[in-house]
Specification:
Layout: H1 6-25, H2 33-44, H3 53-62, H4 65-78
Pfam families: Post_transc_reg (PF13797)
Protein name: ComN-like post-transcriptional regulator
Organism: Trichococcus patagoniensis
Amino acid sequence: MPNISEKQYDQLEPWFKLKATEFNQLGYENIQVDDIYRYFKEFSWKHTVPPHYYQQIRDIMKTTVNHYFDFVALEAQVYKVSSLDEINFDDFL
């Protein structure tokens, strides 16, 4: 998993906030900045972070709610629980 440095995070945080705000305006109020960051760190940029800042911003801005929910669905499939009663579905919506 690539390591996003603190400096990179500080540069990208306004863009993560903008994307979280966009998703919130679409009715997905539970999606926060940390969720967007985790999506990129653990899914979209799992193997490599784009080398240029403009490429990173482009990736963030072209991300849709469907991309994010693909990540959440995959995470739910590999999440180890013994029963569906243990999953908090409110976190996904």
